[in-house]
């Protein structure tokens, strides 16, 4: 636990809880611009790298072959709330390859957006794999398999062509070699590879700038970033950090949360990439940390970011009872 | 952040996240049996002390005067899921003093039990203050005010007789002097006082044994513990740690969660009290820590506790992907 405290949770005049973690801001050539904590220890980036996992869908030509539009490409990069529009786009992606939700191997859960869950219950329906927050990524995997003229079944296995393409892309973008058999299993059942924050941040600087990527991959990254910037609702949903921040920042920032306190971001206009891991896995602290880092490195983004840099905590009567506060290491 | 790591979150062969914190096990005379981390720093116990906050309701004679039964007394100590049975008992408590939910000053929120929230939506109703997880405690405060022949309105203010009684009881049980004006505001709008873990643990040893309490207070504590042991559903609800553990352990343990990673427990049969604070506020880690400590100090409780000491993490397909693991300091 040598990592510095990144965020303090304040109630009244007292620090109630503390979140330690690591972060790094890199350029695409590998120069470290700012960092704190253990940035060379491999961590599971979880869903923060969905944009990298979606690259083969575009690079392979599958997205064009099946006519996937920008909403679909944004959903392929998403951890969405299972709201009706997300579900409709996931279904449309599968229909484009003549498939349906029975092909999805991510499992089912109630929509993570509570209101969408209640609306689904009121409609009398049960959740399906389309409501899984990863259904867009998985629909993209099914489309990729079809584009490669492979049988989609089993696409979650590390041995399947889809996951081999994804793994090679991850290695190519981050420059980090992923040892065979070293992976965990993600919430949606695909392999989860651990990668140091330093390699993730440099990879996202490449995603943002194209520097160090082959032309086809650089174009695919640009297309995915632009798709998400055009449809930020698709990448998360109502009342969600990623959607709100990207709605405000447009193409200045691609920002993606991962489970267990991870964030990755690409900042094309300033040529930087960022990776954050809150050591205890808390999303609330990772949000504050990435907001503080975005504010520091994106001139003119104050209006969008300031509510997220020091979010006020209110209780059930709407009274202000505290705040989440970034520590000096993030901003100084 | 000098506190030791208490719980590791493991995915595959790798530690994905780590939770540091502090804990102490005490007897009622103030002897420290086991501890780790900063146990003398005041922390907000939040809802972990509801059983202490409910003592005046019984001690004052109000519970008897209004015929509150064991279900009601258990709900007065609860952070409940807003399930139908919880809501019915809270309404019954208010009816016993000729009041209704319009007297509650805790605010409204959708039931914290997701299934109860969906059921409420399907019924076409909106959540009220009765669904607030603290509604039983607040209904108890309204009953206490009526028992003291005070107007309940404003019972959440530190200046109201109800909160002055609660504060004096907290000081009496824990032996820790609460400075005027030093409090924060809790999620349900009552004052939140910070108290060191050492004082909380000794206080819970007293709650469990009666040692060091006046006879009337010792009897009130015993009555509340027995009410919760008889109706563990009331104190939390379906699929909840406190309810499951107390359903298994009966009167051997009174266990109560608080927000931001707090647990307090009274172990009457072995004469001990426990207090835990996960430094980052994570309930998942505080559950593992209290389960490991209960297992260590309660002979014969393995069947109930072992599933909670090293809970398996499963993904949306039901695959085992990892586990929460207590570190050696908790058990050795």
From TrEMBL, chains A, B:
Write down a Pfam family by its short name. Asparaginase_II
Superkingdom of the source?
A: Bacteria
PANTHER family for this protein: L-ASPARAGINASE, PUTATIVE (AFU_ORTHOLOGUE AFUA_3G11890)-RELATED
Protein's name in the database: Asparaginase
Q: Which source organism?
A: Teichococcus globiformis
**What does the organism's lineage look like at the top?**
Bacteria, Pseudomonadati, Pseudomonadota, Alphaproteobacteria, Acetobacterales
């Amino acid at each position: 636990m040598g990592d510095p405290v990144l965020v303090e949770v304040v109630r009244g005049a007292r620090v109630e809880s503390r979140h330690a973690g690591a972060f790094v801001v890199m350029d695409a050539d590998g120069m470290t611009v700012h960092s704190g904590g253990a940035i060379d220890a491999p961590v599971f980036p979880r869903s923060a790298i969905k944009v990298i996992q979606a690259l083969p869908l575009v690079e392979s030509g599958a997205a064009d072959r099946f006519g996937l539009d920008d909403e679909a490409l944004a959903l392929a990069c998403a951890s969405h709330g299972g709201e009706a529009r997300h579900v409709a786009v996931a279904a449309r992606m599968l229909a484009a390859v003549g498939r349906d939700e029975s092909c999805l191997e991510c499992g089912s859960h109630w929509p993570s957006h509570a209101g969408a869950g209640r609306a689904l219950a009121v409609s009398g329906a049960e959740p399906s794999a389309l409501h899984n927050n990863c259904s867009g990524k998985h629909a993209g995997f099914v489309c990729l398999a079809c584009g490669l003229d492979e049988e989609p079944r089993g696409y979650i296995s590390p041995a399947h062509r889809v996951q081999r393409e994804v793994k090679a892309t991850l290695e190519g973008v981050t420059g980090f070699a992923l040892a065979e058999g070293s992976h965990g299993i993600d919430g949606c059942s695909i392999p989860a590879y651990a990668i140091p924050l330093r390699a993730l941040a440099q990879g996202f600087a490449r995603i943002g700038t194209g520097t160090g990527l082959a032309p086809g991959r650089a174009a695919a990254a640009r297309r995915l970033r632009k798709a998400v910037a055009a449809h930020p609702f698709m990448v998360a949903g109502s009342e969600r950090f990623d959607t709100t921040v990207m709605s405000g920042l447009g193409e200045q920032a691609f920002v993606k949360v991962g489970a267990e306190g991870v964030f990755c971001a690409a900042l094309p206009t300033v040529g930087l990439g960022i990776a954050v891991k809150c050591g205890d896995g808390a999303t609330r602290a990772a949000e504050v940390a990435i907001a503080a880092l975005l504010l520091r490195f994106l001139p003119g983004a104050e209006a969008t970011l300031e509510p997220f840099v020091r979010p006020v905590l209110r209780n059930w009567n709407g009274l202000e009872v505290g705040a989440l506060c970034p520590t000096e290491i993030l901003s100084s």
